[in-house]
């Protein structure tokens, strides 16, 4: 009897010690994420974490391709597109595409999907990304025209964020059911979805030629140190958003660190529109020379990502100006410029920043304080919660200086990030008439070459005016178990699961 | 109702949910449109009347972020929270009460002192620290227990232990004090005088009476746990109400916050009622004429 129970205890211990650690399964990948998709209806959320799921389940007319280094617009469900007249783009669709339930993809699908986003009843945040669209016209089953209210040169790029949804399936099951069990044209299908907990995808559909993974599970582990523990315990094979101070430890334990340089720039925004010393270009220049962004990048972001090169758009963004050189770190020059502007003894100014929203936001705000203090400028810092920060952005009530991270992803176009300096933007930052003219011209310039030239000029102006202190482009960083290959995060924060494989 | 009204206004004071739903690069007209569609453009008074009308039929509306029935989301999370609360309360009561009794009966033994020392530590140790420690030891190093999520009993162990720490320590200390007091009562002396066995005196007479006075603490602590063990649920990625509530507050998801608080308030009221009734049942002295 004693021996039997001892054996039982032993077996129990073995089960206990081995069970939670899954055996290396080459067909399954489990990823620990900060949050899983809020809803699986791709028209109801724009958060990066939701889009991670959508991009693998659904497809778009056009796609942004990063495989050759830069960002290129490539055909997606549309094989080609052309401008018919300044306000009309015509898309020719791919033949023979089907949703995973067999429903055919055609012009009807495109019209339905775009109109669904535009329909007020859908309450879609995606509409903010296609603000100009007026109508969608079907020419024939494989040709569709998108008409905009005003000429929109980036409309084909905007189509890279509107996911195509199946009209018949949606009408049959209803929007609620669709939001938890959708079907798409992507290479993965939704197997299981538990909000705030787990999304489980299985390989499916026709677009699965190169796919090696059969199942991808995303599990929600909100706390960063818990994600690291989950990875080290073997419970997941990859984690998102690795705390930068854990990177060395994870490398030592043979995990791979995989990251993309996100298509966004961390900047100290200088509100020239406020009645403060910031109105003076010399003052803005002085502040640009006062901050050692290289040291911030090396010490606070630990060299992951990239140093901003004196402008808001990185080399992978449309409108990046390669001729721009960043301002040197030169406190002496900063002091001279301040004296020239009439502030030999500096001044006091306020800044608002977030804590824990953007990579190294808190630390960056504190070093900015120290750098400014060294040239005599007292920076009072107010930390605000993200919702409040956004409210200030919408209502143009930020402090004269604010620290934010502004994106040109998902479509990798400079328009998205340059608009912050437009004097008519509600955030009320820039006051540069020449910039306004150039930027406004770019918004109706249909010739891509000329448009790129205009955006480059606009970048040059915000550099010359020192409209912000350009700091760095943060990483989108993952730690991945050693046997996983093809795990390639992208600058638009997406990850394509059909590229990934797991070694046995 | 009072709680709901207060919450309605406090949440709306806190800011605008639309700016958190829309991308930063969205034009202001698009934001205004979404605000209108979500019914957030109406005056506070109008919004409040709508809210009360729906509250009567327990309709809290759809979550702004997850776009599902807020009440359903809360009910989906409730079992996880109940399991965790009950498991850790069971643990806290069992261990806490046991060690409290022991420490009272054998105050000078080393084990008794150790128990009290541990309970002091238990009260002093914040959950985010003890929880992370548990994760490192049992998930990362020993690999005995999973580090995240919910599923079978193995997922429950670590969060339950972490969450039990504080109430366990509190119950242990209270039990010891109450027990020491009880042991001085006349009826205990009488029992001893009757020549009853020490163990029977301690367990049947003294401990049973002490247990009654611990009831109220259990009720209060259980209420706190149900309200959301936010830190514990976050560290162990436990899909409970607390974590959902915190995320809802940060996203200004009014309907979800209101539904959560409503359900939790109802539960806490129920527990208080049950504790009061149980107390009256166990201790005839406090029954009202």
Write the CATH architecture name of the largest domain in chain B.
Orthogonal Bundle
Task: State the separation between the terminal residues of chain A, measured CA to CA.
Answer: 42 Å
Helix content of chain B: over 70%
Major β-sheet profile of chain B: none
The CATH topology of the largest domain in chain B comes to MetI-like fold
Oligomer state of the chains in this structure = heterodimer
Low-confidence stretches of chain A: 1-23
How far apart are the first and last residues' alpha carbons of chain B, in Å? 31 Å
- Using the CA coordinates, give the radius of gyration of chain B: 24 Å
Compact summary:
The complex is a heterodimer of chains A (504) and B (289). Chain A is built from 15 helices and 21 strands. Chain A has helices at residues 2-18, 48-57, 107-118, 155-158, 167-178, 224-232, 247-252, 281-290, 293-300, 331-340, 361-374, 386-395, 415-418, 433-443, 448-464, and strands at 28-33, 62-65, 72-75, 78-85, 88-93, 133-140, 143-148, 188-194, 198-203, 215-220, 238-240, 256-261, 264-270, 306-307, 348-353, 378-383, 401-407, 468-473, 475-480, 484-485, 501-502.
Can you describe this structure?
The complex is a heterodimer of chains A (504) and B (289). Chain A is an alpha+beta fold and 504 residues long. Helices cover 31% and strands 23% of the residues of chain A. Chain A contains 15 helices and 21 strands. In chain A, the strands form five sheets. In chain A, strands 8-9-10-1-11-19-12 form a seven-stranded mixed sheet, with helices on both faces. Chain A has a six-stranded mixed sheet with strand order 14-18-13-17-15-16. A four-stranded antiparallel sheet of chain A has the order 4-5-7-6, with helices on one face. Chain A starts with a helix and ends with a strand. The relative contact order of chain A is 0.15. With 289 residues, chain B is mostly helical. Chain B has two domains: 2-56, no CATH class; 76-288, MetI-like (MetI-like fold, Orthogonal Bundle). Chain B contains 13 helices and no strands. Classes of the chains: A alpha+beta (504), B mainly alpha (289). At the A-B interface, helix 6 and helix 12 of A face helix 2, helix 3, helix 5, helix 7 and helix 12 of B.
């Amino acid at each position: 009897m004693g021996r039997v129970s001892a054996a039982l205890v032993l077996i129990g211990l073995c089960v206990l010690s081995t069970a939670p650690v899954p055996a290396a399964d080459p067909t399954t990948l489990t990823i620990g994420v900060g949050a899983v998709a809020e809803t699986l209806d791709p028209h109801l959320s724009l958060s990066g974490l939701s889009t991670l799921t959508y991009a693998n389940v659904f497809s778009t007319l056009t796609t942004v391709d990063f495989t050759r280094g830069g960002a290129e617009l490539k055909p997606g469900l549309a094989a080609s597109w052309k401008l018919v007249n300044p306000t009309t783009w015509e898309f020719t669709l791919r033949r023979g595409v089907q949703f995973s339930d067999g429903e055919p993809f055609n012009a009807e699908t495109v019209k339905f999907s775009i109109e669904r986003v535009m329909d007020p009843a859908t309450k879609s945040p995606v509409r903010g990304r296609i603000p100009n669209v007026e109508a969608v016209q079907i020419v024939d089953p494989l040709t569709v025209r998108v008409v905009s209210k005003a000429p929109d040169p980036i409309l084909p790029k905007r189509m890279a964020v509107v996911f195509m949804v199946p009209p018949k399936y949606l009408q049959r099951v209803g929007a609620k059911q669709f939001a938890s069990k959708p079907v798409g044209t992507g290479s993965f299908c939704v197997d299981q979805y538990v909000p705030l907990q787990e999304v489980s995808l299985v390989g499916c559909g026709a677009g699965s030629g190169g796919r090696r993974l059969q199942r991808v599970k995303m599990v929600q582990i909100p706390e960063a140190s818990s994600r690291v523990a989950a990875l080290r315990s073997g419970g997941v094979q990859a984690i998102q958003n690795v705390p930068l101070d854990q990177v060395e430890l994870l490398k030592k334990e043979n995990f791979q660190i995989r990251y993309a340089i996100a298509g966004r720039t961390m900047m100290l925004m200088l509100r020239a529109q406020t009645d403060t010393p910031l109105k003076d270009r010399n003052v803005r220049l002085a502040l640009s020379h006062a901050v050692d962004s290289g040291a911030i990048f090396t010490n606070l972001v630990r060299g992951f990502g990239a140093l901003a090169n004196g402008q808001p758009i990185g080399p992978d963004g449309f409108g990046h100006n390669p001729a721009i050189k960043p301002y040197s770190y030169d406190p002496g020059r900063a002091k001279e410029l301040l004296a020239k502007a009439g502030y030999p003894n500096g001044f006091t100014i306020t800044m608002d920043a977030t804590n824990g929203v953007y990579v190294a936001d808190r630390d960056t705000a504190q070093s900015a304080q120290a750098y400014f203090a060294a040239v005599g400028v007292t920076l009072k810092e107010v930390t605000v919660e993200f919702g409040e920060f956004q409210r200030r952005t919408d209502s143009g009530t930020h402090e004269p200086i604010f620290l934010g991270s502004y994106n040109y992803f998902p479509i990798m176009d400079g328009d998205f990030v340059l608009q912050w300096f437009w004097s008519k933007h509600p955030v009320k930052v820039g006051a540069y008439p020449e910039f306004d003219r150039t930027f406004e011209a770019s918004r109706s310039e249909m010739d891509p070459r000329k448009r790129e030239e205009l955006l480059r000029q606009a970048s040059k102006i915000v550099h010359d005016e020192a409209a912000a202190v350009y700091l760095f482009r943060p990483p989108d960083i993952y730690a991945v178990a050693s046997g996983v290959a093809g795990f390639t995060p992208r600058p638009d924060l997406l990850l394509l699961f059909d590229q990934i494989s797991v070694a046995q | 109702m009072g709680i709901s009204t207060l919450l309605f206004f406090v949440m709306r004071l806190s800011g605008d949910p639309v700016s958190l739903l829309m991308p930063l690069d969205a034009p202001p007209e698009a934001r205004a449109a979404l605000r209108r569609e979500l019914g957030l453009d109406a005056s506070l008074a109008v919004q409040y009347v709508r809210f009360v009308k729906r509250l009567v039929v327990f309709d809290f509306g759809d979550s702004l972020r997850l776009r599902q029935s807020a009440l359903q989301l809360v009910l989906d999370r409730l079992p996880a929270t109940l399991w965790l609360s009950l498991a850790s309360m069971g643990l806290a009561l069992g261990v806490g009460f046991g060690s409290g009794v022991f420490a009272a009966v054998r105050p000078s033994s080393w084990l008794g002192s150790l128990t009290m020392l541990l309970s002091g530590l238990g009260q002093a140790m914040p959950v985010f620290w003890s929880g992370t420690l548990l994760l490192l030891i049992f998930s990362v190093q020993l690999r005995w227990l999973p580090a995240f999520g919910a599923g079978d009993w193995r997922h429950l162990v670590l969060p339950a232990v972490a969450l039990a720490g504080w109430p366990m320590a509190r119950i242990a200390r209270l039990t010891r004090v109450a027990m020491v007091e009880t042991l001085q009562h006349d009826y205990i002396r009488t029992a001893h005088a009757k020549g009853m066995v020490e163990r029977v005196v301690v367990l049947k007479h003294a401990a049973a009476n002490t247990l009654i006075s611990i009831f109220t603490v259990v009720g209060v602590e259980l209420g706190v746990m149900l309200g959301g063990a936010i830190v514990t649920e976050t560290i162990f990625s436990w899909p409970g109400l607390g974590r959902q509530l915190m995320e809802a507050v940060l996203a200004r998801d009014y309907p979800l916050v209101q539904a959560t608080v409503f359900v939790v308030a109802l539960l806490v009221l129920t527990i208080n009622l049950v504790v009061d009734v149980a107390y009256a049942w166990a201790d005839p002295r406090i029954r009202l004429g």
